């Protein structure tokens, strides 16, 4: 009896408990809506259960790939719905106890990220926020490792350039983001 044959309730429960928070953060960072992110995260695990025999041993990148497709399906469905009103800020992702200067830096990083293409944002999120290496990010994106490495390099360069161009808010004396804010995005996972 192989490992795939043994993927029952115990296997699923272990995967769910180990990776639920990571998958939910992945979805939440892309939606910034806690209730929808929880719903879509549950959908990811419903699909995981149905496709458990196809899951690789190291399944977090595989789960991110499922989440990516669930998010794409949700985006297509949203086009038919009326536009939602976005709340200001990213309080869901930010520790509420952090000092205001650091909060301004987070806003600058999010503005710089918003200025990038969706492809650049996704690669930077996978490597910087989700902590994947280039190989795992390539699996999530369904691309060759070399392609993802080049795209990551270019995305980092574009992010740095976007951060160099200060937002109009900073003209009023707000500090520029420190390297610590973007440090996870600058680490090399190659």
Which descriptors would you attach to this protein?
globular, disordered C terminus, 190 residues, mainly alpha, 8 helices
Q: How far do the termini sit from each other? A: 36 Å
Instruction: Provide the succession of SSEs.
Output: HHHHHHHH
Largest sheet: none
Indicate the radius of gyration in whole angstroms.
18 Å
Please give the number of β-strands: 0
Categorize the overall geometry: globular
Q: Which structural category fits the helices and strands?
A: mainly alpha
Mean pLDDT: 77
Strand content: under 5%
Which bin fits the share of residues in helices?
55-70%
Poorly predicted regions are 84-88, 168-190
By DSSP (H or I, 4+ residues per run), the number of helices equals 8
Give a structural overview.
This protein has 190 residues and is an all-alpha fold. The protein contains 8 helices and no strands. The protein has helices spanning 9-31, 34-50, 60-78, 100-115, 118-129, 134-141, 145-164, 179-186. Helix 5 (118-129) packs across helix 8 (179-186). The radius of gyration is 18 Å and the shape is globular.
Brief characterization of the structure:
By secondary structure, this protein is mainly alpha-helical.
SSE inventory with pairings:
Blueprint lengths: L8 H23 L2 H17 L9 H19 L21 H16 L2 H12 L4 H8 L3 H20 L14 H8 L4
Helix pairs in contact: 1-2, 1-3, 2-3, 3-6, 4-7, 5-7, 5-8, 6-7
């Amino acid at each position: 009896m192989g490992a795939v044959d043994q993927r029952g309730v115990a296997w699923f429960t272990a995967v769910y408990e180990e990776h639920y928070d990571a998958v939910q953060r992945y979805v939440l960072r892309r939606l910034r809506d806690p209730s929808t992110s929880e719903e879509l995260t549950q959908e990811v695990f419903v699909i995981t259960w149905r496709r458990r025999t196809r899951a690789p041993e190291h399944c977090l990148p595989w789960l991110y790939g499922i989440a990516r497709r669930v998010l794409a399906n949700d985006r297509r469905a949203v086009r038919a719905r009326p536009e939602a009103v976005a709340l200001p800020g990213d309080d869901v992702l930010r520790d509420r106890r952090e000092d205001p200067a650091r909060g301004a830096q987070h806003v600058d990083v999010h503005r710089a990220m918003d200025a990038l293409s969706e492809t650049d944002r996704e690669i930077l999120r996978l490597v910087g926020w989700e902590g994947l290496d280039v190989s795992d990010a390539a699996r999530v994106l369904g691309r060759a490792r070399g392609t993802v490495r080049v795209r990551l390099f270019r995305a980092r360069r574009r992010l740095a350039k976007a951060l160099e161009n200060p937002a109009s808010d900073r003209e009023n004396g707000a500090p520029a983001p420190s390297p610590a804010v973007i440090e996870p995005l600058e680490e090399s996972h190659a």
